[in-house]
Amino acid sequence: MIRGTGFAPARAGVMHMPKRTTKPTRLTDVFFRHMVANMRNGVLAIARDGTVVLANDEACRLFGLPATASLVGRAFADVLHQHPEIVRVLGGAFDMAALPNRAELRLKSTDTVIGYTLSLVRDEAGATAGAALFFKDLTHVEQIEERERLRDRLAAVGEMAAVMAHEIKNPLAAIEVVAGLLRRKAPQNDDVQALVKDIISEAKMANAIVQEVLAFVRPVRLQVDRTSLADAVASAVVLADGKATRGRIQVETVLPDGLPPLGADQYQLTQVFANLLINAYEALDGRGRIVISAKLARTAADGALLPDGHQAVDTVVVDVDDDGPGMPAGVAEKIFNPFFTTKAQGSGLGLAIVRKIVDAHEGRIDMSTADGRGTRFRVTLPVEPHKHGTHH
Ligand SMILES: Nc1ncnc2c1ncn2[C@@H]1O[C@H](COP(=O)(O)OP(=O)(O)OP(=O)(O)O)[C@@H](O)[C@H]1O
Ligand SMILES: [Mg+2]
Questions:
Q1: Which CATH number characterizes residue 382's domain?
Q2: What is the pTM (predicted TM-score) of this model?
């Protein structure tokens, strides 16, 4: 509760202002002002009449507001018009019987999740002088939780798939054997020969799918070494060219000089970029442009990873952009799900495997797309992953 601290150029009569005549009070005042300005949480306070009394640096950053001073004295609904969710919370401050404590909301305009607590500011007589919103950016916390949930889901799906694949393998082998016997029983009958040939080729195809599923559900074991991103990308292009039709698609690689080598599994990393390239080839259908670019990020603002939620580590951010058809929202939200595919011949495991490998490297993968205007996959990898564990 900020009671009687007077750390803001508050409007007279709105917040209790200590007398500024004696030295200790002045020191306290300055101290409080610095403390609030430097807080890692956001603080935004309003007076009873709905004008802004205070917004610290973190509040301005989170809400995308200009410098603090120009906000003071303006109506909060006006200042925060970009964030109707916040306006609603603050607007209810003086009427609500119980104020929200440790609540969460999502800022739609920036897609940021914040955790917040709302308190009333009372003067010495106990009268309500204003309200203060304390909040924290939970985006990173949420992302970590979301990845954990996804990992659990993948593990559950994977386990079931592994069991099914094993169960299917035996009858499938039996079908092939029996079909072979049948073929030998009627060597003169062309109709039977043709049908049996079909049975065998379909059984072989089913077997290939089973093998692919088993390869997917097997845990990723990394052979971590000092790995050059440029080498991994170059091998990926060769691999993709061998596996899919490139046609007249241009592939451009723009990597800055001096990227540090990554603590990564070169083979697996190559699979990641090859899968992304193959998808782009398939989306571009013979013509268009793919750009693979990278940068080194050292701060959170620059896109560096925060493994512990606070401290940024050196990170390499790689973008694979294509100018293909993009995808509608209904497709975009499912692409990392195993077995999700929009292709007649697809298994839908490509991106699920990519995600698994990136996870094993303690990195992340994000996708942004505009229907009709191309797609960007962003692979974010720590230069030095901490633990080189096994990922399921
Ligand atoms: N660059 C892209 N442009 C447009 N759509 C894409 C792109 N990359 C992926 N997709 C969409 O995501 C879906 C899932 O991709 P994923 O690689 O997981 O499976 P797939 O390519 O369909 O099959 P597989 O990779 O197993 O052969 C694709 O079917 C496609 O709809
Ligand atoms: Mg694919």
A1: 3.30.565.10
A2: 0.61
